[in-house]
């Protein structure tokens, strides 16, 4: 509806009946326009309230309200951009799949779905909004899964090099602070960012602020509100630009500032430990349905059939029964497609990446290997003693995760830089990207 038509409609409504001040209902404010979508101020307010609730009793660690709003708004923008890209790529999440995710979360917290709904209401959260957030999260997971399948490759030479260095025996808990730079930053922007990161490091080194508190208050990274935590990582999961230095650091020591593709960074080594599972490897249990092409079945027909079967499984049909009736894999047909326990590369890197990229109980999108089109339902995971082959699989997985994180962060910067983002929240600086 164009502005002229809106004006005419408003004039007609005004002429039709008098409006009193007490009858006026304010329109919903817009916090940001993201391409063809919007983020409402009420959405931003709820997200900020959630952060404040998480920091109850520790609110002094949070940045000023306007900075906190900017951080939270940027998170919301990135989620919208990812779900939009997922939709453009044909990623869909059905109501039945959202129901399944709700049931899993309820079970993990010792609730029935109805009890979870009641708990959310008691916490002042809308069940519909909770479902919407879950749908977005599932879409982002599937987008990341497709991304890993198409862009992440780990060579045997990389695995050999990592095994030669015995890089999987120790794990490092890391945190970081990022002062971001835009693409094509001017010399003035670079100087300002460099001065800011040096100032943050000085605060930490003088003991005026803990590293995690400084990350919450000053970092431009999406994980700022988690204190910049990068979690526990093996050496293979640490970017090669930092891995050498990290091995010689002491807990509490800060590395940097370092200039990277996103801007200037500080990296802190929080703690070091011997990997508890250095002699073990992750194994997966999964069911699959294979649809082969060839003969009278074209590749497109095989893909469409796999998509139809996936939709039936997501809609509640028993996956094992579907496999018995439809799979072209005779070795697993009688077991309902069950492949038993296997490592990430046992059935090839493409198959393993798909299984590793979904959660237990989830069903993959159709994907293609040399054997044909597959859909996979992941049943569970476990740690098993690592022989040489399993150790290689463990190292391959660690390298793949590190590469995925690097490439995924680069991808997020790309879609953020290409997007039209008009920030209108009063507490956030106005600006347009893309």
UniProtKB/TrEMBL annotation:
Its main location: periplasm. InterPro entries: OMP_Chaperone_SurA, PPIase_dom_sf, PPIase_PpiC, PPIase_PpiC_CS, PPIase_SurA, SurA_N, Trigger_fact/SurA_dom_sf. Keywords: Chaperone, Isomerase, Periplasm, Repeat, Rotamase, Signal. Transmembrane segments: none annotated. GO terms for cellular component: outer membrane-bounded periplasmic space. It is found in: Periplasm. It holds the Pfam family SurA_N. Its EC number is 5.2.1.8. One of its GO terms (molecular function) is unfolded protein binding. SUPFAM superfamilies: FKBP-like, Triger factor/SurA peptide-binding domain-like. It catalyses: [protein]-peptidylproline (omega=180) = [protein]-peptidylproline (omega=0). It comes from the Bacteria. One of its GO terms (biological process) is protein folding. PROSITE patterns: PPIC_PPIASE_1, PPIC_PPIASE_2. The PPIase activity resides only in the second parvulin domain. The N-terminal region and the C-terminal tail are necessary and sufficient for the chaperone activity of SurA. The PPIase activity is dispensable for SurA to function as a chaperone. The N-terminal region and the C-terminal tail are also required for porin recognition. Chaperone involved in the correct folding and assembly of outer membrane proteins. Recognizes specific patterns of aromatic residues and the orientation of their side chains, which are found more frequently in integral outer membrane proteins. May act in both early periplasmic and late outer membrane-associated steps of protein maturation. This is Chaperone SurA. The lineage of its organism: Bacteria, Pseudomonadati, Pseudomonadota, Gammaproteobacteria, Lysobacterales.
């Amino acid at each position: 509806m164009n502005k002229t038509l809106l004006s005419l409609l408003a004039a007609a409504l005004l002429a039709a009946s008098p409006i009193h001040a007490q009858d006026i209902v304010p329109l919903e404010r817009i916090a940001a326009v993201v391409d063809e979508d919007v983020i409402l101020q009420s959405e931003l307010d709820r997200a900020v309230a959630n952060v404040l609730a998480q920091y109850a009793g520790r609110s002094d660690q949070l940045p000023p309200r306007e900075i906190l709003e900017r951080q939270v708004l940027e998170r919301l923008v990135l989620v919208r951009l990812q779900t939009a890209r997922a939709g453009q790529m044909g990623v869909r999440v059905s109501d039945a799949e959202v129901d399944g995710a709700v049931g899993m979360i309820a079970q993990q917290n010792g609730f029935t779905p109805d009890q979870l709904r009641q708990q959310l209401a008691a916490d002042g959260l809308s069940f519909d909004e909770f479902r919407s957030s879950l749908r977005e999260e599932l879409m982002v997971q599937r987008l990341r899964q497709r991304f890993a399948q198409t862009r992440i490759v780990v060579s045997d030479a990389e695995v050999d090099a990592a095994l030669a260095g015995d890089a999987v025996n120790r794990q490092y808990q890391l945190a970081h602070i990022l002062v971001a730079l835009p693409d094509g930053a001017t010399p003035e922007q670079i100087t300002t960012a460099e001065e800011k990161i040096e100032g943050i490091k000085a605060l930490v080194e003088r003991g005026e602020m803990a590293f995690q508190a400084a990350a919450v208050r000053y970092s431009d990274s999406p994980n700022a509100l988690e204190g910049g935590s990068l979690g526990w990582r093996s050496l293979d999961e640490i970017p090669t630009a930092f891995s050498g230095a990290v091995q010689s650091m002491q807990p509490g020591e800060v590395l940097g500032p370092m200039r990277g593709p996103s801007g200037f960074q500080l990296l802190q080594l929080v703690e070091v430990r011997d990997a508890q599972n250095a002699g073990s490897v992750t194994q997966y249990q999964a069911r699959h349905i294979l649809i082969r092409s060839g003969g009278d079945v074209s590749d497109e027909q095989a893909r469409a059939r796999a998509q139809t079967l996936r939709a039936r499984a997501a809609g509640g049909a028993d996956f094992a029964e579907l496999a018995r009736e439809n799979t072209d894999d005779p070795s697993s047909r009688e077991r309902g497609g069950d492949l038993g326990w296997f490592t990430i590369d046992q059935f090839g890197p493409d198959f393993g990446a798909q299984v590793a990229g979904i959660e237990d109980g989830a069903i993959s999108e159709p994907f293609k290997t040399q054997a044909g089109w597959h859909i996979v339902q992941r049943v569970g995971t476990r740690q098993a003693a690592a022989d040489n082959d399993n150790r290689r699989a463990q190292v391959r997985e660690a390298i793949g995760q590190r590469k995925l994180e690097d490439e995924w962060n680069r991808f997020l910067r790309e879609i953020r830089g290409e997007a039209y983002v008009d920030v209108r929240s009063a507490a956030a600086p106005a600006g347009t990207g893309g």
